[in-house]
Amino acid sequence: MATEQEVHHIAELADVGINTEELSTFTHQFNAILDYFDVLDRVKGDTAGTRDLCNVMREDIPEPSLPREAVLQNAAATEDGFIKAPRVM
Amino acid sequence: MEAHTLTFEPDDRYNAFLTTCTKAPHGEGPLCGVTVAVKDNISTQGIETTCASKILKGYIPPYNAHVVWLLRQSGAAIVGKTNMDEFGMGTTTENSAFGPTLNPRDTGRVPGGSSGGSAAAIAGGMVRMALGTDTGGSIRCPAAFCGIVGMKPTYGRVSRYGLIAYANSLEQIGPMAQNVSDVSTLMGVIAGYDRRDSTLQDRPYTHTPSADIKGLRIGIPKEYFGAGVDPAVAGAVTKAIGRLEELGATTLPCSIPSMEYALAAYYVTCTCEASSNLARFDGVRYGPAADTKKSWHDAFREVRRAGFGTEVRRRIMLGTFALSSGYYGKYYAKAQIARENVKKDFARIFSDVDVLAGPTMPTIAFKLGEKSDPLAMYLTDILTVPVNLAGIPAISVPCGKVEGMPVGLQIMGRPWEDERVIDVAYAYEQAVS
Prior knowledge:
Chain A is mostly helical.
């Protein structure tokens, strides 16, 4: 069971925001879904099947990338050819 | 190269399109002048691509998805971008930020999802072909609900470069059309090697459908006809399988025991992948502006809260929870074991049979607004998700009606046997048309 506090914490971690009206509905639906996921407790078998998988490698060959204007065209805020982001500190 | 222009002014009464290209340029080639619609999570250079989300409103991709480049090379006229459940998260196309798509067979019902706009554009006679994407049934479900043909190719057969990712390990771009021949033709255009998708194998598709299925062994998984499947739908599909027997196929009963937890494994996997993939939508490089004067988290939270719909936020949160410290072993790790068990079940069955057959969806198309509880909605995906977990090819072809609404016959095949899956669907279609 996830509590409203936990669901609020998850919303904070995921940066999706949640308000008090939503919190009780989300928590209720969350728990119904998590209850359903409990069927996985019955799964038998060894650790996930990555044994038969292999990496596919290729040479790293430099080639032209998108022009700067194309990369910036969708950004909401730019300055001196760079993308502006919210402050970190 | 694109010397011609096709005028496209459809009467879009079903809200199938998010964007239409009224003057669609096209060149010469095997699809010269053929109208093709593209699902709105596939990047089209110079044409707005939103994934039916407010968070990408106004986004104009600076490059083409590989499949879009291939379409243009083939002479196809890309006439628009189709409506969908936001980021592919849904089974009805009701989760679009720009309003639901209506089912052309009955406008009081959903077209299925998430590629509902593509299916409705075809069923409504607006385009000849369309691209969809299928993460857990998103091509096959709307194909079944709208009475058209749609295929999810083998994982690794069609490049995902330029597909805006939701759950990378599950999703494939695939062809949709009115009939199997057109699906096969479109598959021939979009399959093939692209080094920008590292999960791709060099397996071009050059097949012409054949209706000869004499000696074909068809497995009938009992789980596809069990609890939760509308008996009328099961009946229509059983009758269709009877037609395949008349054409010389034999049937064998079989069982996929891992279906018990396939749906949970699917939803854990896709929400985990979504929580990571959708972290990139923060209003910095694209989408509505983040307030750069606010702190990082405050600014992102504001943009994502306003930009994402409820279902998208729910899935991001579920994935974040399932991957969080202390829960990883209980959810994600178990889901991967379950996924391996689904693969093993299919491999075991495919040593005795050539294809599997069953319904695509457990019911006919729901009424608009009929399903509002998220878990109840998830449960309707039970017959389509095993294919995505195993990475195998599957097609949905119309097989009769229940209450006047189309029913889909689902044919599932061995990995890389997309051709055989097409042939079985073609044989059925030719026999009943």
